[in-house]
Write a structure and sequence with these properties.
Chain A contains four helices and 14 strands. Chain A is an alpha+beta fold. Classes of the chains: A alpha+beta, B mainly alpha.
Chain lengths: 313, 202
């Protein structure tokens, strides 16, 4: 059997495997292609196996040393161009942005301005809670919204809507403030203990000696109080703590609320008794958050004696 | 060695370096973000495609290999070296073979060159860029998957490859004619030489 060596009768299809000499002039030899593929594969394997200290790393560093400065130069030159899209903004967008930022700035400023006030309010509320726990009464928190002209009274922002009525004790975190003299639906007027008309039953904390604490009626100028003890033989001592004595049913004053400390002691020769000057614990000109002593279980926002607070106004 | 091959070599070197610098330095701020990857047109790949269109397959294959090697070793690269070399070599070889064997012969020694037409038709250019981009990106991504070099999965890579394809085709409309113009300038006065050669042949 002989091979068919006749030339094909059908025309040769022009395929990729054509052996036309001119057309093949630029084709890479098979060995070159194989060599390049193997070179890439070998490089990959070596680099993969070598990890951080593969033989490729030094080459990479050299290329980096050469190309790095060129890249830096090109980047410097083209930065104005590459960052150009970010500079493309409309006037409206910029105005809007200015507006937004101004508003944000104002909001932040307001927040910053209120920060000190808020911190003080938190501190006052904490003190009030602590006091409620100390004296064992429930308190209705209220804010001072007005100071009386000519008399030592203040107005609170709570009234009958919070179950307040006259002859209730008003305290602040620092001690006794006064008693309620009149209420409306939403406000209550408080007579401060520094008022001329005010006299509070007080007792010396150390020895339970009883006395009367009277105001001087000079609110805002002279906050002194005076204590006169019932037992004329007892001499008050400087630094002694004075607390309320308490009345029947806690009206107008409940017992055990701190009033102030003894500052000076005078001997009253005519009356053969001793008078003590008291520095009140409360700064009456800077009152803000106060508490009104109410029976436990009162509805509304109440700080209970155990320190728990209800806010269901 | 044929006349003009030194010029061609210089042209390829210049084009590759410029493309590399553009690709890694200038374009990234303008990148198209897909997922969390920024995609820029693959200019070095386009230089290889342009070389494959303008010269022969052998030269295009070698250009692809060395341009890929440069891309593998140039500073921002931290992948396994050889991946781009293999990918761009494949691009050079395949695009070169397809163009010179089938698409009416555009390259050196072809009918187009003999007739003094050096510019590729637009359709061929776009097809070559799209095919080359797809092939190069795929080979690069597949070697990455095979070697465990790339953190991304196939699902993440597909949209990236598609966007890269679109960007490459758009960039090719500018890049390939530019490279061809560069070749023409650097192969010393090619038109007159070509006429001389044709006369000699005749």
């Amino acid at each position: 059997m002989a091979l068919d060596t006749r030339p094909p009768t059908t025309p040769v299809r022009r395929t990729g495997a054509s052996r036309d000499a001119e057309r093949d002039s630029g084709r890479p030899s098979r060995s070159l292609v194989v060599a390049l593929v193997l070179a890439s594969a070998a490089m990959m394997v070596v680099d993969k196996a070598g990890g951080a200290d593969s033989p490729i790393e030094p080459v990479r560093r050299v290329v980096g040393e050469v190309l790095g400065p060129v890249q830096a130069g090109v980047a410097t030159v083209t930065r104005p161009i590459t960052t150009f899209p970010a500079a493309l903004r409309t006037n409206d967008a910029l105005r809007q942005k200015v507006k937004d930022l101004t508003a944000e700035n104002e909001a932040l400023d307001a927040q910053l301005g209120k920060a000190g006030y808020d911190a003080n309010r938190v501190a006052e509320l904490k003190e009030l809670k602590a006091l409620a726990g100390d004296i064992g009464y429930a308190l209705v928190p209220a804010r001072v919204i007005a100071f009386g002209q000519g008399s030592s009274t203040v107005t609170l922002d709570a009234g009958t809507d919070s179950d307040l009525h006259p002859d209730m004790t008003v305290v602040s975190g620092k001690g006794l403030v006064g008693r309620i003299t009149s209420v409306t639906a939403h406000t209550a007027t408080v007579l401060l203990i520094v008022d001329n008309d005010s006299s509070v039953g007080g007792r010396v904390g150390d020895n339970l000696e009883l006395g009367l604490v009277r105001g001087h009626g000079t609110f805002g100028v002279d906050d002194r109080l005076e204590l006169e003890l019932a037992d004329r033989k007892v001499i008050p001592k400087v630094g002694q703590q004075i607390v309320t004595w308490g009345s029947e049913n806690g009206a107008p004053y409940v017992a055990g609320v701190p009033i102030g400390t003894v500052k000076k002691v005078y001997e009253s020769v005519r009356e053969t008794s001793y008078r003590a000057e008291i520095t009140p614990g409360v700064d009456f000109t800077a009152l803000d958050l106060v508490g009104v002593v109410v029976p436990s279980g009162t509805k509304g926002t109440v700080i209970e004696a155990d320190g728990s607070a209800r806010f269901d106004r | 060695m044929r006349p003009g091959s030194t010029g061609r070599l210089v042209g390829v070197l210049v084009a590759t370096l410029v493309a590399l610098l553009l690709q890694v330095t200038v374009l990234p701020p303008l990148a198209w973000t897909v997922g969390d990857l920024g995609v820029v047109p693959d200019l070095v790949l386009l230089v290889v495609v342009a070389t494959a269109l303008a010269s022969d397959t052998r030269f295009a294959t070698l250009t692809g290999f060395f341009a890929g090697l440069l891309l593998d070793l140039a500073p921002p690269a931290d992948h396994i070296a050889g991946r781009w070399a293999l990918a761009l070599m494949a691009v050079g070889y395949v695009v070169g073979r397809l163009v010179h064997d089938n698409a009416g012969d555009l390259g050196a020694g072809s009918r187009f060159e003999r007739e003094g037409v050096r510019r590729s038709p637009l359709v061929v250019m776009v097809a070559a860029a799209a095919g080359g981009s797809f092939l190069g990106t795929s080979v690069f991504a597949l070697t990455g998957l095979f070697l465990g070099d790339s953190a991304a999965s196939v699902g993440q890579l597909l949209p990236v490859a598609l966007v890269a394809l679109v960007l490459d085709v758009i960039a090719a409309l500018v890049a390939i004619p530019t490279v061809h113009w560069l070749f023409r300038r650097l192969t010393s006065d090619p038109s007159s030489q070509r006429v001389e050669r044709m006369r000699a042949r005749a």
